[in-house]
Specification:
365 residues, 9-stranded mixed beta sheet, 9 strands, globular
C-alpha cells in the first residue's frame, strides 16, 4: 500500500477547499437559518378588531412587536399622554425560533399591565423577553387602559361601552389565535398581571376558567372588599394623572358602599376562587420593606400583600392548591428588590418564577 505524503494530502485538502468555495459562489449565499425572523407577522381583521397599524418590531432584536387595533367593545377610553383614544396598542414577544410558516405551535401567556401604565413599556418588554429566553412561549400584553380595571364597566356614561373583559376575552384571544402559531386551547394558555393587572388576571380566570390553565398575580389588587383597595380604585377614577377624562366614582363597579356594592363583591377575586379548581394558581407579593423608604410604594405593597393573604385563605378553604411567594422585604427574592410595589427587580423575579411554573403544565413544543 502506498502511503501518501503529508504534502500531497495538504494539496488535496487545498483543492477540495477551492472547489467548495467555487460551488458556493455558483449557488449564491447560504440561506438564512430557519429561526432568523426578518419581518413580523401580518394580521388580518376579525373578531371585532380592526388593524390600525400592522406589527412593527420594537428594536433590532426582532423578538417583540407592537400592533395597534380598534375594538368594538372599547371604542374610546381614558388615555395617558401620547395614547390615542380608541386605538389599542398590543405588545407581543415571540419565542426565539418562531416561524410563522412552520407547523410548530406555541402556548401563550397574557400579561396584564398595572395602572397607570402602557402595555408597550420597556418594563413589560423586559419582563417578557428575559423570562422567556430559550422558552417556547408567546407573551401578549394588551392595552388595559389607564383605569380600565379589566372589567365591563357598570356606568360608562357618555363614553359608550367600556367592556374591557369582552374586548380581551371575546375579541383579542381569538384574534391572536387566528394570526399567530398558538395552541388555541386552555392547555395552551395562561394569564398573569401586576397590580391592577393581577386583579384582571384572577378576574378573567374566575369568570372564564375554560380559557386558562394557569393564573398568576404579581402584587395584585385581589380583594375588592378591602376598603383601602376600594379607595384605590375610586381614586384611579378621579385623578387626571391616571387618564383623561376622569370618571365618576361609580363608573367601573358601581357605588362602593353597602348595600349598593354588589358589583364590587361579585368581581372581587379573593372571595370568588371556586372556579379556579383544577387550574394552576400563583401569587407573589412583598411586605413593603422599610416603611420610611418610599412610604407610598411600601404601603401599596403591604395592602396588596394582605389581599393575597385573604385570597390564599379562601383558596385553602376551598381545597385549591396554590403557590404564594410571600417574599417579605425582597432581600432573598432578587437583587435590588426591597419588597415594595412596582419594583422591576421584584417583578422580574416574579415573572421568571411564574414562567417556570406554567411551562410544567402548558402544552408546548
Amino acid at each position: 500500500m502506498k502511503i501518501l505524503s503529508r504534502a500531497v494530502l495538504r494539496g488535496w485538502a487545498a483543492t477540495l477547499t477551492g472547489l467548495v468555495a467555487t460551488f458556493g459562489m455558483l449557488l449564491g449565499p447560504a440561506a438564512p437559518a430557519a429561526h432568523a425572523v426578518t419581518a413580523p407577522p401580518h394580521f388580518a381583521n376579525g373578531f371585532g378588531l380592526t388593524v390600525v397599524s400592522q406589527p412593527k418590531w420594537v428594536d433590532a432584536n426582532r423578538r417583540t412587536f407592537v400592533i395597534t387595533v380598534k375594538s368594538t367593545q372599547v371604542p374610546v377610553y381614558d388615555v395617558l399622554k401620547d395614547q390615542v383614544s380608541g386605538e389599542h396598542v398590543v405588545m407581543v414577544t415571540l419565542p426565539e425560533g418562531y416561524d410563522g410558516t412552520a407547523g410548530t405551535r406555541y402556548p401563550v401567556l397574557y400579561d396584564l399591565h398595572g395602572s397607570p401604565e402602557y402595555p408597550n413599556s420597556s418594563r413589560y418588554q423586559a419582563l417578557a423577553e428575559r423570562s422567556t429566553k430559550g422558552v417556547p412561549l408567546i407573551t401578549v400584553t394588551p392595552n388595559g387602559g389607564a383605569r380600565g380595571w379589566y372589567t365591563n364597566w357598570v356606568h360608562p356614561d357618555s363614553r359608550g361601552r367600556q367592556n374591557w373583559e369582552s374586548f380581551h376575552l371575546d375579541e383579542l384571544i381569538p384574534f391572536v389565535d387566528a394570526n399567530l402559531k398558538t395552541i388555541p386551547t386552555r392547555e395552551g394558555r395562561a394569564i398573569t398581571g401586576h397590580s391592577m393587572g393581577g386583579f384582571g388576571a384572577f378576574h378573567y380566570a374566575e369568570d372564564r376558567p375554560g380559557l386558562f390553565s394557569y393564573v398568576g398575580s404579581f402584587s395584585g389588587v385581589l380583594d375588592l372588599q378591602n376598603p383601602l383597595l376600594r379607595a384605590a380604585v375610586v381614586g384611579s377614577e378621579l385623578l387626571p394623572n391616571i387618564g383623561t377624562p376622569t370618571a365618576a366614582p361609580d363608573a367601573i363597579f358601581g357605588p362602593p358602599v353597602w348595600p349598593l356594592d354588589g358589583a364590587w363583591n361579585k368581581a372581587s377575586a379573593a372571595q370568588n376562587v371556586g372556579t379556579l379548581r383544577g387550574m394552576g394558581v400563583a401569587m407573589y407579593a412583598g411586605n413593603g420593606g422599610d416603611l420610611t423608604d418610599n412610604p407610598v410604594l411600601a404601603v401599596a405593597e403591604k395592602v396588596d400583600r394582605q389581599s393575597a393573604v385573604t385570597t390564599a385563605a379562601h383558596l385553602k378553604a376551598a381545597g385549591i392548591p396554590y403557590r404564594f411567594a410571600d417574599y417579605g422585604d425582597g432581600s432573598t427574592w432578587a437583587r435590588g428588590c426591597n419588597g415594595k410595589h412596582a419594583q422591576d427587580p421584584c417583578l422580574q423575579a416574579d415573572m421568571n418564577d411564574f414562567v417556570k411554573l406554567i411551562m410544567k403544565r402548558l402544552r408546548h413544543p
